[in-house]
Amino acid sequence: MSESILVPPPPAFAQGALVSSRAAYEALYRRSIDDPAGFWGEQAARIAWHRPYDAVWDAHARPGEIAWFTGGRLNVSYNCVDRHAARTPDRPAILWARNEPGEYETITFRDLQERVGRLANVLRAHGVKKGDRVCIYLPMIPELACAMLACARVGAVHSVVFAGFSADALRERILDADCAVVITADEGLRGPKRVPLKPVVDAAVAGLDGVRRVLVARRTGAAVQMTPGRDLWLEDELARQRATCPIEWVDSEDPLFVLYTSGSTGKPKGVLHTTGGYLVYAATTHRYVFDAREGDIHFCAADAGWITGHSYIVYGPLANGVTTVMFESIPTYPDAGRYWQVVDDLRATIVYTAPTALRALLREGDEPVRKYRRDSIRVLGTVGEPINPDVWRWYFDVVGDGRCPVVDTWWQTETGGILITPLPGAIACKPGSATLPFFGVRPLLVDDDGKILEGDDVAGNLCLAGSWPGQARTIYGDHARFLANYFSRFPGYYFTGDGCRRDGDGYYWITGRVDDVLNVAGHRLGTAEIESALVAHEAVVEAAVVGFPHPLKGQGICAYVITRPEFDAWDREELTGALKEQVRKAISPIATPDRILLVRGLPKTRSGKIMRRILRRIAAGELDPAGFGDTSTLAEPAVVDDIVALARGRG
Ligand code: WTA
């Protein structure tokens, strides 16, 4: 059993590590639980405060009413940029690895201060004030990090939308957060592809009077349409501004950003993070989980459009004064050696990526890895989905040559930073397990009736007791939804939506979502969103979407669709093609169903509830009705036989 395999921290690493033994971890963990104010107060001392906070936190606050470091004033841009520019101006802050292999650009802390200052002045010149929301729809170019930090500098709230989302999805997010300014680029580059961005923004903001200004960065020089009075080239605007931009000191609990993520129901949620607690948490987790120190080159291969990029490309490393890599390309461009080429060229010391990328690379064998020097690497990390034990082994043995600890980090957009993870010098790993809670984190497993499962060797719904500084504070504009979503299913606790097992040694194994959220190639998608995209097509009467195990993506998307009789004459292929296109247009290519089954009916209970359990089994290729469980409440059992026959027919 993989469960019994223990991989201790490589001794040479453990020796010099920040936390270098299990006992040291336990002592610090105990302290963080027994005296959260003392523990987090010490961590907060690594951040510069303009005005000291009055209280670390309120232990008696109601669940869902969260505040940390109250009364304190600070600025994230000052902490991530200015204080390092003063001390280590020539240290690289950002190493930008451009899309084409071998092309790099270095931005020192001094450069970053200038670039952020200019951009912050541009925002001010266009009327952006404290509390205003700014939408950022940019590819992985330095302007993305600069724009985030510029918003923070003037106290504005950024809403970064991953530059793969469609015009419809972008429009919905711009409207929800009421953004008056959008920052974008002409195009993005992703491996061999050019990704048009400005035309997407044009479509997204068409007719929206609230959007006053669209600032456009030039990445490829592609010809784009500029709407007079609304659109301006970012570089022209930057040239008008000086680099010095006074700082807007904000309250600890003033919002820093909104980031949209998928839930099991309804529209995407604008998860809101505030300033003091988020920054302390991002910096503290970055430091301990990656054993980060001055001189590290932190290479997180995520996109800054997701929470991983927010916390571990931009805010965590920069708050700690650590050089961060921004990777514009994809892991397989021009070939499967690309990550390791970046490591070799930049002498990266920390690598952090998603299992889905590693699965794709493993398939290409060891040669593309071995070709490059990897002796600079100290720590390897993964995030976003469970990692298969064989992939973990490959990462450890081949990529890290058995020298580098692997940290499998579990967390969520809502948690702001890593919650369950090994510490690289302290915890013996079990491949596939995220192991143990980070400092201050109190995981609980709860059964469906709300009973807390004590002891080890139990499985249930993963909840968290108490609070930690990086916890989301609300859903933008809908606090009732925040409370209902996260704090009502198991009153008194934050419910993660994940299932989890705690093994005989107290190690945590995330088993995947227990709600209707999919994890496709590390991307979080709501089945409800995909279903509403499908039913928006004129041919569709009803749709049900489920996930199925997929060797590369972790989960694939299977859609069962009932179409209108008028469309019976259509070519099946053409119709499913049109439906896939519909989803791409409404959400993003990442949400495109892998399979669409055109069915005559959906299995429903007599009360009209779709029995997704059956659809999941069929999508997984388990067509034997004996495995469908209790089907006695089905309104029309024949519907299931039809679907099974259809699935069989597909071979
Ligand atoms: C899943 C990404 C297993 C989980 C930072 C969670 C993981 C969701 C892991 C959050 C991991 C994340 N092992 N599953 N190490 N990390 N997940 O909000 O289901 O994009 O709830 O945040 O990803 O996805 P999100």
UniProtKB/TrEMBL annotation:
<keyword id="KW-0436">Ligase</keyword>
<dbReference type="InterPro" id="IPR032387">
    <property type="entry name" value="ACAS_N"/>
</dbReference>
<dbReference type="GO" id="GO:0019427">
    <property type="term" value="P:acetyl-CoA biosynthetic process from acetate"/>
</dbReference>
<dbReference type="InterPro" id="IPR000873">
    <property type="entry name" value="AMP-dep_synth/lig_dom"/>
</dbReference>
<keyword id="KW-0067">ATP-binding</keyword>
<feature type="domain" description="AMP-dependent synthetase/ligase">
    <location>
        <begin position="82"/>
        <end position="467"/>
    </location>
</feature>
<feature type="binding site">
    <location>
        <position position="308"/>
    </location>
    <ligand>
        <name>CoA</name>
    </ligand>
</feature>
<dbReference type="InterPro" id="IPR045851">
    <property type="entry name" value="AMP-bd_C_sf"/>
</dbReference>
<feature type="binding site">
    <location>
        <position position="524"/>
    </location>
    <ligand>
        <name>ATP</name>
    </ligand>
</feature>
<feature type="binding site">
    <location>
        <position position="498"/>
    </location>
    <ligand>
        <name>ATP</name>
    </ligand>
</feature>
<feature type="modified residue" description="N6-acetyllysine">
    <location>
        <position position="609"/>
    </location>
</feature>
<dbReference type="InterPro" id="IPR020845">
    <property type="entry name" value="AMP-binding_CS"/>
</dbReference>
<dbReference type="Pfam" id="PF00501">
    <property type="entry name" value="AMP-binding"/>
</dbReference>
<comment type="function">
    <text>Catalyzes the conversion of acetate into acetyl-CoA (AcCoA), an essential intermediate at the junction of anabolic and catabolic pathways. AcsA undergoes a two-step reaction. In the first half reaction, AcsA combines acetate with ATP to form acetyl-adenylate (AcAMP) intermediate. In the second half reaction, it can then transfer the acetyl group from AcAMP to the sulfhydryl group of CoA, forming the product AcCoA.</text>
</comment>
<dbReference type="InterPro" id="IPR042099">
    <property type="entry name" value="ANL_N_sf"/>
</dbReference>
<dbReference type="GO" id="GO:0016208">
    <property type="term" value="F:AMP binding"/>
</dbReference>
<feature type="binding site">
    <location>
        <begin position="190"/>
        <end position="193"/>
    </location>
    <ligand>
        <name>CoA</name>
    </ligand>
</feature>
<feature type="binding site">
    <location>
        <position position="540"/>
    </location>
    <ligand>
        <name>Mg(2+)</name>
    </ligand>
</feature>
<feature type="binding site">
    <location>
        <begin position="384"/>
        <end position="386"/>
    </location>
    <ligand>
        <name>ATP</name>
    </ligand>
</feature>
<dbReference type="InterPro" id="IPR011904">
    <property type="entry name" value="Ac_CoA_lig"/>
</dbReference>
<feature type="domain" description="AMP-binding enzyme C-terminal">
    <location>
        <begin position="529"/>
        <end position="609"/>
    </location>
</feature>
<feature type="binding site">
    <location>
        <position position="513"/>
    </location>
    <ligand>
        <name>ATP</name>
    </ligand>
</feature>
<keyword id="KW-0547">Nucleotide-binding</keyword>
<keyword id="KW-0460">Magnesium</keyword>
<feature type="binding site">
    <location>
        <position position="535"/>
    </location>
    <ligand>
        <name>Mg(2+)</name>
    </ligand>
</feature>
<dbReference type="Pfam" id="PF13193">
    <property type="entry name" value="AMP-binding_C"/>
</dbReference>
<keyword id="KW-0007">Acetylation</keyword>
<protein>
    <recommendedName>
        <fullName>Acetyl-coenzyme A synthetase</fullName>
        <ecNumber>6.2.1.1</ecNumber>
    </recommendedName>
</protein>
<feature type="binding site">
    <location>
        <begin position="408"/>
        <end position="413"/>
    </location>
    <ligand>
        <name>ATP</name>
    </ligand>
</feature>
<feature type="domain" description="Acetyl-coenzyme A synthetase N-terminal">
    <location>
        <begin position="25"/>
        <end position="80"/>
    </location>
</feature>
<dbReference type="InterPro" id="IPR025110">
    <property type="entry name" value="AMP-bd_C"/>
</dbReference>
<dbReference type="GO" id="GO:0003987">
    <property type="term" value="F:acetate-CoA ligase activity"/>
</dbReference>
<feature type="binding site">
    <location>
        <position position="537"/>
    </location>
    <ligand>
        <name>Mg(2+)</name>
    </ligand>
</feature>
<dbReference type="GO" id="GO:0005524">
    <property type="term" value="F:ATP binding"/>
</dbReference>
<feature type="binding site">
    <location>
        <position position="584"/>
    </location>
    <ligand>
        <name>CoA</name>
    </ligand>
</feature>
<comment type="similarity">
    <text>Belongs to the ATP-dependent AMP-binding enzyme family.</text>
</comment>
<keyword id="KW-0479">Metal-binding</keyword>
<dbReference type="GO" id="GO:0046872">
    <property type="term" value="F:metal ion binding"/>
</dbReference>
<dbReference type="Pfam" id="PF16177">
    <property type="entry name" value="ACAS_N"/>
</dbReference>
